[in-house]
Design a protein that fits this description.
The complex is a heterodimer. Chain A is an alpha/beta fold. Chain A has 7 helices and 10 strands. Chain B folds into 2 domains: 187 residues, no CATH class; 170 residues, no CATH class. Chain B contains 13 helices and 10 strands. The chains are: A alpha/beta, B alpha+beta. The structure holds adenosine-5'-triphosphate (ATP) and magnesium ion (MG). The site of adenosine-5'-triphosphate has 11 residues of chain A, from strand 2 and helix 1.
C-alpha cells in the first residue's frame, strides 16, 4: 500500500521560477528512500511539500490515499503531528527543554498530557537511539550527533507513518553518519516506518532501498536498489 | 492550554533578566498607580471628613412639624447611619444689658452627639441630662459662664436654663449661634438630621430624590452637597487628574508588556516554527503568549500592590506633622487594591493579544527554510 502519493506536483516562485516540474512519485509503507541531487535542484522544496509545510503551486498530495487539503490548517496540523516525523539538518531541538521533554513535545501537542507509559516508552526510545543517560540534560550540553539522535527519537515518538529527513547528518563526521543511518534503517524495518531522506552523500544513498535523483526540478533517476 | 502554559513558563524563565526587568517595570507602574490613587482618595476623604464628617449630611425639615414614627416608616433606613429628631427654634438669650440671638436645637442629646460628635471634641463641662439644662457654642463663653442660669425668650415665652457646657464644633458660625438642650418626650419636632453610611456619602442626592418622592413637597430636604458646591468641584477636579495619572501609568505598562512580548515572538520564532512543524495548532501558539502576559500581569500586579503598600507605609511614617500625625491620614482601600490587581492582569492580557496573533500567524516553512 502506498503511504504517500504525489501527482503532478509543481512549485513556482514569482517571475516564473519553476522549482519543481510535474513530479509524480509514490512511496510504499516501511521503505527506506533517499533523494539526491545538486544544490538548488529542489530537494528541500519537495520534502517540505510532502511534509505539508509548503504548498505546491499545482498538483496533489495523498496520505494513505486521502487527498491533502492545504487550506484546511487543522487537518494539516493533525497530519504533521500524527503521521509525519521531521528530522532536519540543524536538529532544531528547543533549548528551553531537557532532552526528555523535547522528545515528549509531540506527545503533548497530540494529547495535552503525558502518561506514565508514554514516559517509559520515551526512555526506551532514547535508549534505542543511544542517548538514554542524557535525558535530563539541556540540548546545548550534547554533541551534534547526540542532538541528531534526540531529534530522531522526537520524530518517532508519535509512531508516525513517515519520517522526513533533510540532510540529517549534514554536519556530522562519517563514522557518526554511518551509525545514525544504521539506526534509522533498523527502525525502518522494525517499526515499518517509511523513511524519505535527502542526502548529498552518494555512498549513503546507495544503501537505501530506492534512490530518487532530482535535477532542475524534475525526476532524473528513480532506481530500485533492493 | 496546558502546553501553552508550560511553553509560556519556559519561555519566560529562559530569558530571566528580561523577565525580571519587565516584572519590576509592571510592579513599579502598579505601585505608582496604587500610591497616587490611595493618596488622592485619602486626601479627599480627610477633606470631606473635616468639612462634613461632624454634621448632618441630609436634613429633612417641615415647618408644620414632623411625625417621627410615621416618617421613619417611609424612608429607606438601610443607607442611614444615624438619625436625630430635632425641634429648631430661632430664639434669643436675654442677658443683663443685651440680647443674643441663638439657634436652639431641642433634641435627644445622645442622638445629636452621634451626628455632631460634640463630646469627643473640645468640650467644657458636661452634656445636658435634665430638661432645663443647656450647652452653648464656645463663642458664648466670653459672656456666659459655666453653671450660670440664663433666660431664653421666644416671642412672649420665657424659660430658664442652666448652662452645663460649651462645645466647639470647629466652625465659627456654629460656635457663635448653636445651642443644644434636651427635648421633653412628647415634644413636637420639625427637623430630622441624618448621617448616611460611608459608602453612600456621595449618593446623598439620589437618596434625597427617593425621600422627596415618598414624602412629598411639604418636606424641605437639603444635602451636604448642596451646601458645599465649591468643595465638590474641587474634589472632582482632583479625581479627574488622579484618574488621568492612573490611566497614563496603565497605558505605559501595557506598552511595555506589548513591546517585550513582541520581541519575545521574534526571539522564539524558531521554537514556534519547530513546534508548528510538529503540529502545534494556532490556538496553543496564541495561548503561549497570552499566558506569558497573564503570568507577567499577575506577578507584576501582586508585587506592585506590595510596593505600593510599602510606599504608603513610608509616606505615613516620614511625611508627618510636628505632632507625628501623618500629613495626610492614609485610608487603605482593599477594593481599590483588588481593582488595581485586576487592572494589571487585564492590561497584561490585552497587551499580549497582538504578540499572540503574530505568533499564530508564523509560518513554519519560513523558519525551516531560513536556516
Ligand atoms: N522563497 C523562495 N523564493 C524564490 N526561490 C526560492 C525560494 N525558496 C527556494 N527557492 C529556490 O528554489 C530552488 C530549490 O531550492 P531547494 O531548497 O529546494 O534546493 P535543494 O535541492 O534543497 O538545495 P540544497 O541541496 O542546497 O539544500 C533553489 O534554486 C532556490 O533558490
Ligand atoms: Mg535543501
Amino acid at each position: 500500500m502506498s503511504v504517500i502519493k504525489l501527482k503532478g506536483i509543481e512549485k513556482n516562485y514569482e517571475k516564473n521560477i519553476k522549482v519543481l516540474k510535474n513530479i509524480n512519485l509514490t512511496f510504499e509503507q516501511g521503505t527506506f528512500n533517499s533523494i539526491i541531487g545538486q544544490s538548488g535542484s529542489g530537494k528541500s522544496t519537495l520534502l517540505n511539500i510532502i511534509g505539508t509545510l509548503d504548498k505546491p503551486t499545482k498538483g496533489s498530495l495523498y496520505f494513505d490515499d486521502k487527498l491533502v487539503d492545504y487550506n484546511d490548517i487543522k487537518s494539516l496540523e493533525k497530519i504533521r503531528n500524527e503521521k509525519i516525523g521531521f528530522v532536519f539538518q540543524f536538529h532544531y531541538l528547543l533549548p528551553e527543554f531537557s532532552v526528555l521533554d523535547n522528545v515528549l513535545l509531540p506527545v503533548k501537542i497530540k494529547e495535552n498530557k503525558v502518561t506514565k507509559e508514554k514516559r517509559e516508552e520515551t526512555i526506551k526510545l532514547l535508549n534505542l537511539v543511544g542517548v538514554k543517560e542524557k535525558l535530563d540534560k539541556k540540548p546545548n550540553q550534547l554533541s551534534g550527533g547526540q542532538m541528531q539522535r534526540v531529534a530522531i527519537a522526537r520524530a518517532l515518538i508519535n509512531h508516525p507513518k513517515v519520517i522526513l529527513a533533510d540532510e540529517p547528518t549534514g554536519n556530522l563526521d562519517s563514522d557518526t553518519t554511518e551509525k545514525i543511518y544504521e539506526l534509522m534503517r533498523n527502525i525502518c524495518y522494525e517499526l515499518k516506518t517509511t523513511f524519505i531522506i535527502i542526502t548529498h552523500d552518494k555512498k549513503i544513498a546507495e544503501k537505501a532501498d530506492r534512490i530518487v535523483e532530482i535535477k532542475d526540478g524534475k525526476i532524473e533517476l528513480d532506481i530500485d536498489n533492493k | 492550554m496546558k502546553l501553552g502554559f508550560q511553553l509560556a513558563k519556559s519561555f519566560l524563565s529562559s530569558g530571566k533578566s528580561q523577565t525580571i526587568f519587565i516584572i519590576i517595570g509592571i510592579a513599579v507602574g502598579i505601585a505608582v498607580q496604587v500610591f497616587i490613587g490611595t493618596l488622592i482618595m485619602s486626601l479627599q476623604k480627610s477633606l470631606v471628613d473635616k468639612t462634613i464628617g461632624n454634621s448632618p449630611q441630609i436634613v429633612i425639615y417641615n415647618k408644620d412639624g414632623i411625625n417621627y414614627n410615621e416618617i421613619i416608616k417611609e424612608i429607606n433606613t438601610e443607607e442611614i447611619e444615624y438619625i436625630s429628631p430635632v425641634l429648631n427654634n430661632n430664639i434669643a438669650i436675654k442677658l443683663k444689658d443685651e440680647v443674643l440671638p441663638v439657634f436652639l436645637k431641642e433634641t435627644d442629646i445622645k442622638k445629636a452627639n452621634n451626628i455632631y460628635n460634640i463630646s469627643n471634641r473640645k468640650f467644657i463641662g458636661k452634656l445636658p441630662v435634665k430638661e432645663n439644662e443647656i450647652i452653648l457654642g464656645t463663642s458664648f463663653n466670653t459672656k456666659i459662664k459655666e453653671n450660670e442660669i440664663i433666660t431664653l425668650i421666644n416671642k412672649n415665652n420665657e424659660k430658664k436654663y442652666k448652662v452645663v457646657g460649651f462645645f466647639d464644633l470647629g466652625v465659627s458660625s456654629i460656635n457663635e449661634t448653636f445651642a443644644f438642650s434636651i427635648s421633653n418626650e412628647n415634644l413636637k419636632i420639625n427637623e430630622l438630621e441624618i448621617t448616611v453610611i460611608e459608602d453612600k456619602l456621595f449618593e446623598v442626592d439620589k437618596i434625597k430624590e427617593q425621600m422627596q418622592e415618598k414624602l412629598g413637597k411639604d418636606y424641605e430636604i437639603t444635602t451636604w452637597k448642596e451646601k458645599n458646591e465649591s468643595l465638590l468641584s474641587g474634589l472632582q477636579g482632583q479625581s479627574i487628574s488622579s484618574i488621568m495619572i492612573q490611566v497614563f501609568v496603565v497605558v505605559s505598562v501595557v506598552l511595555a508588556i506589548a513591546s517585550v512580548l513582541t520581541i519575545m515572538v521574534i526571539q522564539k520564532s524558531k521554537q514556534i516554527g519547530i513546534l508548528k512543524a510538529m503540529g502545534l495548532n494556532r490556538k496553543t501558539s496564541m495561548y503561549t503568549f497570552l499566558f506569558q502576559g497573564l503570568i507577567l500581569g499577575v506577578i507584576g500586579g501582586i508585587l506592585g500592590i506590595i510596593f505600593g503598600y510599602l510606599l504608603l507605609k513610608m509616606f505615613t511614617t516620614f511625611a508627618v506633622n510636628d505632632d507625628l500625625t501623618p500629613v495626610v491620614p492614609i485610608y487603605i482601600n482593599n477594593t481599590f487594591m483588588i481593582i488595581s490587581l485586576l487592572i494589571s492582569i487585564v492590561a497584561a492580557s490585552v497587551s499580549s493579544i497582538i504578540p499572540a496573533i503574530k505568533s499564530s500567524k508564523l509560518n513554519p516553512i519560513d523558519i525551516i527554510r531560513n536556516n
